[in-house]
Input
Amino acid sequence: MALLTLTWALGPPVTLAQVPSPPGVHEREVAQLIRQAGYDCLEVERIEVTVSPDPAFDSLRPEVAICKNGKKFLVAKSGRSGVNARPIVRPLPADV
Output
């Protein structure tokens, strides 16, 4: 009990909340992934998140990135393979 009182006296408990990223950060990260895969995309205009009805694909998190140059790319990052997992980047036709 004394330890709990001492801990509270030193300061109230601090809760750590995840701070949301500033606007545009995710778009820059995706553009970097596309360039690292060898494709031309200096800047991502928008990202469309595709929702799969099959829960087995939830860990892939597929996204369609539309670059400012008009090119589209499917970008999928695995949430299960750890930090060394390489994302999948595939070009898409412009009309998709």
